[in-house]
Each structure stands twice: as structure tokens, then as C-alpha cells.
Write a structure and sequence with these properties.
Strand content: 5-15%
Strand order of the largest sheet: 3-2-1-4-6-5
Structural class: alpha/beta
Radius of gyration: 21 Å
Number of strands: 6
Distance between the termini: 19 Å
CATH architecture of the largest domain: 3-Layer(aba) Sandwich
Bound molecules: guanosine-5'-triphosphate, magnesium ion
CATH topology of the largest domain: Rossmann fold
Amino acid sequence: MPIQWYPGHMAKAKRLMAEQLRGVDVIVELADARLPLSSRSPVLDELARGKPRLLVLTRVDLADPYRTEAWVTWFQRNGVTAIQVNARTGQGVQGFKRALDDLVRSKVHRARARGIERVITRGMICGIPNVGKSSFVNQLAGRAVAKTGNRPGITRALQWIRVGGTELLDTPGVLAPKLATEEQGLKLAASGAVKEEIFEAYEVGAYVLAYMSQRYPERLEERYGLSIEQPVLWTNVQEVWPLVQPWVERIGRMRGALASGGLVDEERVAKMVLRDLQEGKLGPVTLEWPEDVHAS
Ligand SMILES: Nc1nc2c(ncn2[C@@H]2O[C@H](COP(=O)(O)OP(=O)(O)OP(=O)(O)O)[C@@H](O)[C@H]2O)c(=O)[nH]1
Ligand SMILES: [Mg+2]
């Protein structure tokens, strides 16, 4: 699965980010609460080198709240402060500001001791494409200062934004996510973080149906009227497709996703399931759970 992760502007922006990092006090890393590990970028560890960090989990409105709590605890145990945020509505922004103040307090104290009254601390907002960086910056600023959009690659240049005594840098989504396994790639695609061309929609759709049948079968029952007697364990699309195909068939008939000749348009059904998941119509779903970490 060779993935060319948004080449071109990514390499350039990564270089610019590395340059900016020297003057930055805090790194604010954004990850998606639905897949808090797979949506983090290993590249950041390389760039960050020992700077204080905060982890902001975005899209908590779409994630399973019990799992989000479990993740926050898990991160805490691993020495990482994670904060839950809805970057679209601003829920959690106050909690973030408090955590940021705690983190920069010592710098502010040191500066005051030297007689400097107005201390500016600088933070850099980083994360994979489409994770919600610009939306979060807008919520922090209290107005629309950064352009946002529901596809990766919206922000192209670095932009400083002043928020109280802090200057925050919005960055383009230049960091490559973890794609150690194909399943991580599928989770990212299911969440909408990966451009669709990388995987076939039917493969991602099959993955989502299998995953949901394991962990959230009642949602499939509610939304599509399926009865999940035999949850399907994901292995690969060749093995799983025949097992989920009857569900696809049923969803297609129910929704009228038919091709000419009255056959179910399987591609359209797959895309419909993905859209439902991404828009929260399957309820709040978390695509990786803390207990998966040791299992895998
Ligand atoms: N439901 C929900 N949607 C969100 C949240 N955060 C961001 N979004 C949506 O996700 C999409 C991407 O948000 P952006 O803020 O543009 O993401 P970005 O990280 O700046 O993206 P790039 O600049 O392309 O890297 C937008 O449609 C946002 O409305 C969230 O917490 N909940
Ligand atoms: Mg952006």
C-alpha cells in the first residue's frame, strides 16, 4: 500500500514548520478523538524534540464518549495531557486555555521575575490534514480568522493568530499520519482523513460494516434494519466482502441505491455508509479503543 501523502506542499510546509519551531514554547497537537492513535503523526515527534506538548482530541461530538474518556485516562497514564474538544462549536476551548496556561506558567513567572510584564507565549497547532486545526484556531480566536473546509489541504500557508497573551500558529496539515498497518489506513479513510482515491470506497465501506458489526451492531440494526447475528471480523476485503455483501444488498434495496436492471449499486451503498458514519448518522463511533493497543 504505497501512499504518496500529499507530496509537494507538504515537504515545503514541513520545512517551514521546522524553522518556526525554534521560537515556539508549546506544541499543540490535534488528533481525531475517533482514532486518537492512528490520527497522530509520528513526524511530529521528530520535529518536536522535547518541547512541552498538549494533545487536543477533536470531533468529540462524533466519537463514543465512553471511549474518549478512556483515551484521556490512557494518555494521562502515558504522560500526555489530552483535552476533549469540538472544534466546530468551541466546546472544550476553556479547558484547553486552562491547560495551556498551566503549561506556560513557568515561562511567564521567569519573565516577570526579570521585570518583563507583557509576556507572549507562542504555540504551534499541528496535526494531520483535515483534523480541525483551522476550526480550532477560529474557536480560540472567537471569530473566523482561518479558512476551514471539509477536505484535506485547505490551509496552505502558516498563519499567526493572537489569542490573549498567546500567539498561535495555524499550520497546513503537513504531517503524515501513522500508516503502519493497512487497518490504520482504513480507519483514517473511514474517518475522512485520507483522500478517497487511496482506497476503493467499497473496501472502506466493507471495513466499516465489519467494524460496526463487532462493536456497535445495534447502530446497524437501528439505521439500516439489519439483524446482526454473526459479527464479521476484519481480515481483508477479499474475505470480508462476501460476508458483508448481504448487508450491502439490504441497505441498497432499503435506500433505493439501484443501478440499471434493478441490481444494487454496491459502490453507492458503500459511499452512503461512509457518509453516514462521517456525519454521525450511525451515532457516536470510536474506530480504535484503548484496549486495542495491546491486542495489536
Ligand atoms: N463534527 C465536527 N467537525 C469538525 C470538528 N473539527 C473540525 N470539523 C470539521 O472538519 C473539517 C476540517 O476542518 P479544518 O479546521 O479545515 O481542518 P484543518 O485541520 O485546518 O485542515 P487542513 O488545513 O486541510 O489541514 C471542517 O468541515 C470542520 O467543520 C469537530 O470537532 N467536530
Ligand atoms: Mg487548516
